[in-house]
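pinning this so it doesn't scroll away 📌
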Amino acid sequence: MRHNTLTLYITTVLIWGSTWYVIKLQLGVVAPQVSVAYRFAVAAALLFAWCLIKRKDMRYGPRDHVWMAVQGLFLFSANYVIFYLATGLLTTGLVAVVFSTIVGWNIIFGRLFFATPLSAQMVLGAAFGMAGLALVFWPEMAAMSLQDQAVYGLLLCLVATVLASLGNMVSARNQMRGLPVLQVNAYGMAYGALFTFAYAKWSGLAFTWEPTVEYTLALLYLAVFGSIIAFGSYLTVLGRIGAGRAAYASVLFPVVALSLSMILENYSFTPAALGGAVLVFLGNVLVLAKPHHFKINRRP
């Protein structure tokens, strides 16, 4: 990857790895659907303000707006609402494990929609990462029973992950059509916020606010860093290296989350978790490295 691309990739991993903990601070008084709507409404407002300051062209045709709305629905609305709900039913570690399957979904959908070529190196790297995550979170996975609540939470995570992957595909399509990431994210997050507000209103949820410094700072962090900066970085990387390789960042999110847990929640690595972290790192190297092609030299 180019140096700038690597910087954007690392930025995405570090920020989104930290949001697992911050999302927990949003759960409680305010309904998860409403918190998601607040988050992307704030992010969209800030992005529009930035685009106006930078005099970005914000004029697009109806067809482009349809695709930006679809991206907003999948990437900035439905999947986040479902993930917030799932986080209330499962531990964040298990949610992170399920979300990491977006690597496989992106590879499948990329092949299906864009005929993206597959390499054994990419598949092997993804397998290493998934195996590593299984080791890291094995105690949580082993403790999960087949109670209705746990199964329901798991199904929610799978649905949300598929929606997020489809959102990745729409973003890739929009970039292929020459639509810039910054402006599309501004419109997409605005559409996503509108969809979520409408759903919350239709569901009869109260648009309350938790008047605490913790909730407000968490919302601002998720809007500015978790939404504007991280999505801008990630979707730019996705456009450059493809959805399959870009999505491998999701395999590293839980590792960052664990590191924060060591500081904030007194988490300690078990030997299995440490071995899993090593596998995740090796998988990351395989997926991000340039594929090697072996040639057989023949005599003329």
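📌 and the second one:
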Amino acid sequence: MVRRWDVFVSYAHEDQAWVQGLADNLHRAGRDVYFDRWEVVGGDRQLQQGLESSQVMVLVVSRAAR
């Protein structure tokens, strides 16, 4: 069975501290959040599966994300 996510968060790793706060807030609001620091144990395949099984993707745009 494939796990389903409400939100997939994509970001530049330089923004990790700020995005961690965003992911925490979404989780506290009752959303099931795919945040790579919580979910990825090994490899890009897990990222692809997380993206494919999420209802919404949040793309964090910053100077670091160029």
